[in-house]
Amino acid sequence: MAEQQPKKKLILNAFSMQTPGHMNPGVYKSPKDKGSEYNNLDTWIDLAKKLEAAKFHAIFFADVLGGYDVYKGPANLHPTIPAGAQFPLIDPLYSIPALAAATKSISFGVTASTTYDPPYGHARRFSTVDHLTKGRVGWNIVTSYLESAARNFGLDTQIEHDERYRIADEYLHVVYKLWEGSWRDDAVRSREDQLAGLGYADPNLVRQINHVGKYFKVPGPHTAEPSPQRTPFVLQAGTSTAGKKFAAQHAEAIFLNGHSPELVRPSVDSIRQQATEAGRDPQSIKIIAGANITLGETDEAAQARFAEIQQYADPEGALALFGGWTGYDLSKYADDQDFRFVEAPAVRGMVNHWAATVPGKNDVKWDKRTIAEYLLLGGNGTHLVGSPKSVADELERWVEIADVDGFNLSAATLPGTFDDIIEFLLPELRRRGLFWDDYAVPGGTMRENYYATKGRTRLPDDHTGAQYKWKAGEENQKFLAAEQK
Ligand SMILES: Cc1cc2nc3c(=O)[nH]c(=O)nc-3n(C[C@H](O)[C@H](O)[C@H](O)COP(=O)(O)O)c2cc1C
């Protein structure tokens, strides 16, 4: 009998946001949901501890820099605010050191925008958190998509999409220089040398980066001494051509949303192919698919549970989210408009994609009501509703067909969705050899645990940012001569 290959162990993240309704507008009204306690640090500490006990890899916090104000707009938050649809929201970065203090091994992905946060301050904030978490922070790089964010940062409208990625690319080179190349690895003196009066660090081993590019001018040096990971673990979610190219250059983990593994596979292949062309190990890019999971003892019980939670959800909030994600205001269309045939090509394409891939929704009319209903819980990721066995079968199918490495699990109720996953799904995944029993590196960095490799704390040498590393013993030459980006 042929020996069975060991199965790929899944990476599991909890996907959340510090807001009443992340992917579940209105559900904060459910007695089982803690969305309305998003601004209480204990909510996140309790969640982090619970997820760490279950050995989740990370909690990943989304963030945006304005309101979803397109629906019934322009600039109207009336449908958004009552639903708590990603508004109000607070900056997730501040909570991370507190979550790290309450845990040891779980990591934290935090979203920050290359379009609105200048690179010097950003590099400093993330180095700070990398120090305070002992290397357990990741950066979800976004270029941002909300018009309201552009206006909040003084622009009349958003910078053009591909231009945002060009800015992001230079931004990354600036922060790599600060993180990897401004301080030599051995710049800070040993305690012994410090006590002997040699000084805190060797000033010859701390240098300016003198970055002068098309978009940024940053002399440095970096204010923070080298933190455990230097560059925080790099996450990204780009689906456009420019987004995938950027991801292939920079990302160590990529988030993808989709409804069928067959349709996600070409994107996965294209990213891995582009990474190979960029000289990187294609398997070193971890691909994480979005999923919203509702469990029950049986498939029928799970469906009933889903319907029960859905009662609390707010369709107006869902349409507000749709408006922000796409820029399209569906209130401008008649209630009976079938968006599979609408003249706006972007909406038509998206809705036809859903119609083709969402189970049980091929033949229905995709009007506003259907779109809202579809987006009420879990947004635009795949929705898996069923018994632990059915859901585990489906996750396995995703890994096999789409070649994904793990899942980003959003909550229908917080923390109810995660409680159910921990109690019912993880034992099933473990029985199948699909999920680890413990962190590969307890107390380790995010990079070590994502790659399940002790000692893999820094960017690998085939990564774009590694060209700026200033290693112990190296002359202060290479970096200054490095091509300016
Ligand atoms: C799982 C997931 C999480 C995301 N989180 C955020 C976020 O927190 N903030 C944000 O501005 N964009 C977020 N995005 C949007 C992406 O950054 C990106 O704008 C989107 O995937 C479209 O990619 P494109 O610009 O290459 O077309 C997320 C996307 C996905 C799939």
TrEMBL record:
Luciferase-like domain span: 36-401
InterPro entries, per database record: Diverse_substr_monoxygenases (IPR051260), Luciferase-like_dom (IPR011251), Luciferase-like_sf (IPR036661), NTA_MOA (IPR016215)
Any Pfam family: Bac_luciferase
Superkingdom of origin: Eukaryota
A Gene Ontology molecular function term of the record: monooxygenase activity
Xref: NCBIfam families: FMN_nitrolo
UniProt family annotation: Belongs to the NtaA/SnaA/DszA monooxygenase family.
The protein, known as: Luciferase-like domain-containing protein
Organism lineage string: Eukaryota, Fungi, Dikarya, Ascomycota, Pezizomycotina
